[in-house]
Amino acid sequence: MADGLLSRRRFLAAALGAGATTALAACGSSRITASSQRSPLTGPVSQEITLTARQTQVDMAGRAVTAWAYGPQVAAGGIRATAGDRVRITLRNDLPEETSVHWHGLAVPNAMDGVPGVTSPAVAPGGTFSYDFVVPDPGTHWFHPHTGLQLDTGLYAPFIVDDPRERGGYDHEWVLMLDDWTQGVGPDPQQIFDDLVAAGEQQGSGHMGGMHMGGMGMDGGDVAYSMFVINGRPPGDPDSLRVKAGDRVRMRIINAAADTIFTFAVGGHRMTVTHSDGYQVKPVRADSLRISMGERYDVLVDVGEGVFPVVAEPLGKVGEALALLRTVDGPAPGQRRPEGLSAYPVGIEALQSDPAVELPAAAPDVTYDLVLSGSMAPYVWMFNGVTHDRARPLMVSEGQKVRLRLSNMSMMSHPVHLHGHTFQVGPAGGGGARKDTLLLAPMARADVDLVADNPGAWMLHCHNAYHAEAGMMTRLDYST
Ligand SMILES: [Cu+2]
C-alpha cells in the first residue's frame, strides 16, 4: 500500500472481519478497527487506543528535525471509527510540559472536550487521561492539543469517522493534512508569539521590528514560515498516492496550520467538493479550493494518467506544500503549479448544505453579536472588545435555537471555531453549509444558526493559534 493510501474497499473488507485492523491514511500505526454496532456509553468499548504525545525526530527531506507529534511522524497516530462506536482513548503525556487533546469537529460530551481549566484538567508530564465517548459525527475531523501554542509544534492527526449508511462510490481515500511548519527549522511557537508581542510594542512606539513577522495583513496571516508540509513532509520529499488511471479518489483535506490559509488544487484535474467540516454539501465542481485553519473539505477526483502535483499554496505567503498523485513511476513534474490555482477558489460562500443535514428552519430564541477586532500593534485579538481573560460567556439554555451574528471589524481574516456543535451558515433551513469553523475575511459579516443540544461550557475561538493566544477566545455556556 502506498504512502497515505487507504482503499475504501480494503477498509470495508477489514471492517467485516471482527477486530481486524488496517492502516489509516497518513498514519503509520495500525489502530483502526471498525464496528457497525451503535453503542451507548454503557455499551462495550469498540476501540481502546493509546495516544502518546511526545518529542520525536522526524526526517524533513533529509533534515533531522525535532518535532512534537502523536506518532513516529507528524500527522501519524490518526484514529478511524464508525459513527456510534464507543472509543476509549488514553492520552499519555511524554512531553516536558502539560498537554490536552481536543477532538475538533466531534460533538463529544463536554467533559471529553479536552480544554484544560474548562472541561478537564491538563495532563501533566508523565501523566495520562482517558477520553471515553461514543463517536457522534461522521466525516473528516482531527485532533490537536488545546494548550497554548502546541498546535504549531506538530501535534495533530486525523480523526476519520465513517458513516455506516454511506455508499462510498470511490476507489481510494487520501487524507491530506496541510500545515505551516516552524518547529526545528525556525523559531519555536513561543518565540514567534513573544516576537509578535514585542514587535507590536515597538511598532506602537514608532520602531519597526520582528524577524518573523509577515506583516502581510489581510489574508496573509501574521507569521512568515520557511516550510509548508502535507502529512508532515516538505516539497523535497512529498507524500504520494499511487492509483490506476480512471480510479476515483476521495481526498480528505484538513488545514492543521496555525496561521496559514491555503489554496488547494490538483494539477490537471478538477475536483468535486462533497463535504465541508464533515457535513455533506451539494456537490460543486472546483478548480481550486480555499481552506482556512481548522476547516476540512472532502473532494472527489477522477484520476488521469500521469504524475500530478497536489499543491496547497499559502495565501499571502511565499512557498508551497506539495504531494503527488500518480498512476505511473517517474519524477515529479517540472511545472508543478496547478493551473487551477489561478482560478477563483471555491470557498464556503459557494457551498450549500445537502438537504439531509440542514437544520430545520426556525427563528432564533436568542441572538448574540460577536464582533471580531484587534491589531498587530499592540498585538491583541478580541471578541466583543475584550480578551479571553475578561470575556463573559454567551449564555444559552438546552433546546434553544441560537443565532450568532459575526462581524469582523479588523483587517485580518479569522477562522471562528465553535466546540461541541455544528452551525449552519446563514439562517437555519436557509441552505448554507453546516460548519464548525467559518472563515471571516477582513470586514466580513456572517450569521450562523445552531441548536443548543449539547450542554456544557464550550470554547468559541479564532483558529489562528496566535490570535487565540493573544485573546481571541470566548465561550458558549449552558445555564443550568
Ligand atoms: Cu483570528
What is the topological layout?
Elements (H helix, E strand, L loop, with lengths): L7 H9 L30 E14 L2 E7 L9 E4 L3 E8 L8 E3 L23 E7 L4 E6 L12 E6 L9 E10 L7 H16 L22 E4 L8 E4 L5 E8 L6 E5 L4 E6 L2 E8 L2 E3 L4 E7 L4 E8 L6 E6 L39 E10 L4 E4 L10 E3 L4 E8 L5 E5 L4 E3 L8 E2 L1 E4 L4 E7 L5 E6 L2 H5 L3 E6 L2
Bound molecules: copper (II) ion.
Provide a descriptive summary of the structure in words.
With 480 residues, the protein is mainly beta. The protein folds into three domains: 161 residues, Immunoglobulin-like; 146 residues, Immunoglobulin-like (Sandwich), CATH 2.60.40.420; 123 residues, Cupredoxins -  blue copper proteins (Immunoglobulin-like), CATH 2.60.40.420. Helix content is 6%, strand content 38%. The protein has a six-stranded mixed sheet, with no helix packed on it. It has a six-stranded mixed sheet with strand order 21-20-23-28-25-26, with no helix packed on it. Strands 11-19-18-13-16 form a five-stranded mixed sheet, with no helix packed on it. 53% of the residues are buried. The N terminus is likely disordered. Copper (II) ion binds next to loops.
Number of strands: 30
CATH class of the largest domain: Mainly Beta
Which fold name corresponds to the CATH topology of the largest domain?
Immunoglobulin-like
Structural domains: how many? 3
Helix-residue proportion: under 10%
Termini separation (Å)?
Answer: 51 Å
Biggest sheet character: 6 strands, mixed
| Lateral arrangement of strands in the main beta sheet | 10-9-12-17-14-15
* Ions, cofactors and other bound molecules: copper (II) ion
Total helical segments: 3
Q: Cα-atom Rg, whole angstroms?
A: 21 Å
Quickly give the CATH architecture of the largest domain. Sandwich
Structural class: mainly beta
Strand content: 35-45%
Give the mean pLDDT. 88
Which parts are unreliable, with pLDDT below 50 for 5 consecutive residues or more? 1-40, 207-217
CATH superfamily of the largest domain: Cupredoxins -  blue copper proteins
| Silhouette | globular
